[in-house]
Amino acid sequence: MEKQTLIYLFVGTSFALYIGIALWSRAGSTKEFYVAGGGVNPVVNGMATAADWMSAASFISMAGIIAFAGYDGSVYLMGWTGGYVLLALLLAPYLRKFGQFTVPDFIGTRYYSKAARVVAVICLIFISFTYIAGQMRGVGIVFSRFLDVPILWGVIIGMGIVFVYAVLGGMKGITYTQVAQYCVLIFAYMVPAFFLSFIITGNPIPQAGLGSQVSDESGLYVLEKLNLVLTDLGFGQYTDGSKSMIDVFCITLALMVGTAGLPHVIVRFFTVPKASDARRSAGWALIFIALLYTTAGPLGAFARLNFVDSVNETVYADAPEWFTNWESNDLIAWADKNGDGVMQYRAGDAFAGAPEFAEETGAHGERIVTNQRTITSDNEVYVDRDIMVLANPEIGNLPGWVIALVAAGGLAAALSTAAGLLLVISSSVSHDLLKSTFKPDISEKGELLAARIAATAAIVISGYLGIYPPGWVAQVVAFAFGLAAASLFPAIFMGIFSKRMNREGAIAGMVTGLTSTFLYIAYFKLWEPTANTAENWLFGISPEGIGVIGMVLNFAVAIAVARMTAKPPAEIDALVENIRVPRGAGAAQGH
């Protein structure tokens, strides 16, 4: 069977499965829409949580960043994995015991304030839209390459699929769809890794293959060869980092505590019957997540080796098929700077930013890049980092069914997280703003309709952000974690562990953390991108890590304001005490 036919078959079958599950498990009540009825098995919920957690950034972009950043890319592995452990142990059981639907629900009730609830909703929407932009961009990239449509139409098709199972199915539909998506994405991630590890080292286990010798009789280990190859081309050693220690620390910590404040992951712990199930569910999710995360490092290393071997010093006329496939989607490009018809891959930027193409083609049939003249480096090859995992099977000459499987897996990863985020946005509008704040007398049917309308509007906005994204997929997602670290995490943490924290402190802290972090990121990424260098950063901390400073400001402002204002009422004292009780899940109710 032809490769393209296999891709249509795999992707079409997976989409039919997702939509079928959504229609079968369509939500009929607000409880089913928000928390899947609250009766999901911990193992099932663990798998759904893993799918929710492992977004397009994890599947598509993380190994690509590791492939090109080397040691510096490890911050994503450490931060996201460590953050999940932090969430599972520190927050999840307490929030589950609280017994409500959403994070703003917890903050609004714990801080006895509608204003606190509204601020939490604003923080949540900022975070979720920043995060979802990366997911929709990932959907567009997969569609553009494998289904041979422009990224614009790829995003629109993805919006349509998510609309069906997120808007109709709610959390109930999303939960069981995400179980199917986890199975697809983990299989799609692991199979190429097994193949590549075996081809490069003779060891089919990628985690072991990374520490094995290369099968070329050189006697070199994988990382030794990678270091030699890259230094010969003018790059730094793969195992050396260029980031400062303070920046590595801050990015890792921002990703960790941002994870613990991510609303779409936290809400999954409300879907199990009791608090002890939340812990078990978290443990299972960690096992399911570890399968992918321990594979990302080896996959990135194998991808970089294969990329250099496949591209560098290759005559363009003899370029492998995968190169021209991705070139037609504007995600890889070559400019013959020295006129020799041979592709030279070296350190430095090939062009000024992403390639801009002229209408005509060059002497060798290549697409002419019009913005190459502003760059004087010897590098002639531009590659979008987000394509590396998707292109890996083609670069490694793997069978067509593996390529089709990766296409289905990339879409599963992006769509699963997008659906979770859309649900969080819709529930925050319908439940936290309408039902709990501005229109408490709304009927359950009206609330469910409002949730679906909000989800539809969120899909349209997220689609726009996917078409015009502010950065690589994993970078955009990193900013969402920074915003979560600076705004929601301190409010949740102090809400559980500090009886003295009151509404004035929590509101002031959230506003301070969100505003300061957003302005810092916006300055360097939107307003003055040319100034985004280490010498201009505050304390040498990059925009990806600034969420830590926002978090510290949040804690400091919240504690100072709380000390200067009245203590929380006695019933809030009792509520906090009740949430902390180790056994029994039914006593602490928010309303």
Summary tags:
591 residues, mainly alpha, two-stranded antiparallel ribbon, 22 helices, 6 strands, 68% helix, disordered C terminus
Summary of the model, kept short:
By secondary structure, this protein is mainly alpha-helical.
Overview of the molecule:
The protein has 591 residues and is mainly α. Helix content is 68%, strand content 3%. The protein has 22 helices and six strands. It has a two-stranded antiparallel sheet. The protein has a two-stranded antiparallel sheet with strand order 2-6. Helix 3 (42-53) crosses helix 9 and helix 8 packs across helix 17 (400-438).
Topology, element by element:
Blueprint: H1 3-24, H2 30-35, H3 42-53, H4 56-69, H5 74-98, H6 103-110, H7 114-146, H8 151-168, H9 170-201, H10 206-209, H11 222-232, H12 245-260, H13 263-266, H14 275-311, E1 314-315, H15 321-327, E2 332-334, E3 342-343, E4 357-361, E5 367-369, E6 381-383, H16 388-395, H17 400-438, H18 444-467, H19 473-497, H20 503-527, H21 547-564, H22 570-580
Antiparallel strand pairs: 1-3, 2-6, 4-5
